[in-house]
Each structure stands twice: as C-alpha cells, then as structure tokens.
Amino acid sequence: MVILITVILAFLYASLVEYCLHRFVQHRSYELEHIKNHHRLFHGVKSYQFKEAKSEDILLDAKGILMNIGLYLVPSVSIFMKSKIYGVLFFVICFVYNMWEECVHFYSHKTTNMFLEKTKPFKRLKEHHRVHHYIYNSNYGIGSTIWDIVFRTKKLADKRWEERIISLMKNEE
Known about the structure:
It comes from Clostridium rhizosphaerae. Keywords: Membrane, Transmembrane, Transmembrane helix. This protein is mostly helical. The chain is built from seven helices and no strands. It has one domain. 65% of the residues lie in helices and 0% in strands. It starts with a helix and ends with a helix. 25% of the residues are buried.
C-alpha cells in the first residue's frame, strides 16, 4: 500500500512540476525565445507536426532537465531520510514521468508512425497539447492533463477559432 501511495504522490508531484514550469516559467512572457521559436514553428493549426522536426526544437535542453531533477531531489531526499527505498522510488517515478512527458512532446511534433502514436492515451495527450499551441494560456500539461483540470486551464479544440487563425495567417502571407 505504501508503494502505491508513493507512486501516486510521485506522479502527482512530477506532473505538477511539469505544469508549473511550463505555465509559470516557459510562458511567463510571450517575448521569451521558447514562445517565439517553438510556438511559431509548431503553431497548432496548420504546422503542428513535421517529419523533419529536430529534437532541439522540441525537447528540453540539459538545463531544463537538470532543473527538473533538482526539483525532484528535494522531496526525494526528504523521503529518503525516512526510508531509502521509498525515497529512491519517488525519485525514479518522477524521472520516468519526465521522460514520458518528453516522449509525448517529441512524438506530438514529429511524426514517425510508431506504436505509441496509435494509442488512445497518446492521441488524447497529443490533441491536448496541440490546442495549447494555438491557445497559449491553456493546456500546459504534456504528460498528463490532471493539473489543467484542477486549475481550470484545460481547453478543447474549437474549429471556428482554428478557422479564424488560419484565415489570419493567410492574410499575413
């Protein structure tokens, strides 16, 4: 039972870290390079996926991954002081979640036709993230939608809104 609780708490913590970093760090200003480059390249309406997409345009850099690891270490060490096995388990689950989130993000933007891309959970997460790319202040969760639901930032696709964006983009060209 304690193992299950540790796994659930680690999942909730890691997904909250992802949500908060994405919402409050990467999206703190629409003048940040992340917004300018990543969201312009993958804007969610016409050009959300590319076979030629580069990993450096999609995945976290070493600094981002180290930041996540640092944030995972804080509770992991606290738990480790009371129980080594649960502290290590907590950290491992957080790290696995981080790899899952990166995987979902990568395959949301780069088409490869892998097995993962054909599963229902992946398709739901991919659509959730696609909407984020044209409604920037929503759908911050990539590996999970739980915190978007809790904090009411989850938005669903709106075809009328997408059509309006497409027409605006055509007028810019």
